[in-house]
Design brief:
The chain is of the alpha/beta class and about 350 residues long. The chain has 10 helices and 15 strands.
Length: about 350
């Protein structure tokens, strides 16, 4: 089979398309003919040899990727042969997903409805489940004013859609005109560019206070002018921008931290939280320690997209262009969930 191998830690160019032996399903496993494989930002760090949380730097050589959707091609001992030919998706691969074939525990496979394509299925199996898990921590109501950071990303897109669906006022913040336009298309009441102080693209919440490109106010000033304080922040960025988002939260508000796209986490000090009566939640910690794991959330996420309640944004690269996909992901030049298509 063809697969993307990493023989040495380093830049995206170290990811090479090679021909390797087909993986063999063991007892309790199934082999999938991969149609779409999911990418995660943490895989760009693992590619560099950087451990991420519970994920150690991988032993080399390695085929990265933990998510795949496709068709069951063969099964190992103890697995019902009727599974062969079924369309499935999994977020728990035993062998890397950046390949034409991958092996998974048969119990991890979720069936795909005929109307659900492989790309959206991969986008929902972990990214969608993550969004639903964050919403468990901080349910959104019609009374909320919600700020979603990294709102053009895979998780952010789904959070914006859900918040709009329940009737909340939604502010989506992203980096660059293309991403801000995408946030506006998803129905955010206000879409702001947090990389260009003084500029707002697509303001639906009211007039543009100060006008575009004049530089007389930062993105947080525009948010305050449009909606006042926010009651809930979903922070997938961290760093300085995470701090600025936190400052927008009103008394008694909530914060959910789930990412560090800026390169570092932002967690406010306990005394800050107490003084402002703000509740802060560790989104990733919740997902890792959630009773029953992620299986229930994954099933709910797939059902939500099949029913049309959520629509993931998907950006696809051919398998052979995995290096380009990694480079785009690192440079923040992607929108939504990035996948590799075989």
């Amino acid at each position: 089979m063809h697969a993307i191998l990493l023989h040495s830690y380093g830049p995206p160019g170290n990811l090479r398309l090679e021909t390797v032996p087909d993986p063999v399903p063991g007892p309790g496993q199934a082999r999938i003919a991969v149609r779409a494989a999911g990418l995660h930002f943490i895989e760009t760090l693992l590619r560099k040899g950087v451990p991420v949380g519970p994920h150690p730097a991988p032993a080399l050589p390695v085929i990265l990727g933990g998510e795949a959707a496709g068709v069951v091609e063969s099964v190992g001992e103890g697995v019902d042969p009727a599974l062969v030919g079924r369309r499935v998706v999994t977020g728990d691969l035993a062998s890397g997903g950046y390949a034409e074939l991958a092996v998974a525990d048969a119990r991890s496979l979720a069936p795909l409805p005929d109307e659900l394509e492989y790309g959206p299925a991969v986008a929902m199996v972990t990214t969608g489940a993550t969004a639903l898990g964050l919403l468990e921590l901080a349910p959104v109501t019609a009374d909320d004013v919600v700020l979603v950071m990294a709102a053009a990303g895979g998780v952010g897109t789904l959070l914006v859609q859900h918040a709009r669906r329940v009737g909340a006022t939604v502010v989506g913040a992203a980096g660059g005109p293309a991403k801000v336009a995408r946030v506006a298309e998803q129905g955010a009441d206000l879409a702001v560019d947090y990389t260009e102080p003084g500029r707002t693209e697509h303001d639906h919440a009211g007039p543009d206070h100060g006008g575009p490109d004049h530089g007389e106010s930062g993105w947080t000033d525009r948010v305050r002018a449009a909606v006042g304080e926010v009651s809930l922040v979903f922070d997938g960025v961290g760093g300085r921008l995470g701090r600025e988002a936190f400052e927008l939260i009103g008394k008694g508000g909530r914060q959910v931290v789930f990412g560090q796209a800026a390169g570092e986490w932002f967690h406010p000090a306990e005394e800050e939280l107490a003084a402002r009566e703000v509740t802060s939640h560790d989104g990733i910690g919740h997902l890792l320690s959630r009773p029953g794991g992620m299986a229930e959330l994954r099933a709910q996420a797939l059902e939500a997209v099949a029913a049309g309640r959520l629509t993931p944004a998907v950006q696809s690269f051919p398998l052979r262009d995995a290096a380009a996909a990694h480079a785009a992901l690192e440079s923040r030049n992607t929108i939504g969930k990035v996948i590799l298509a075989t």
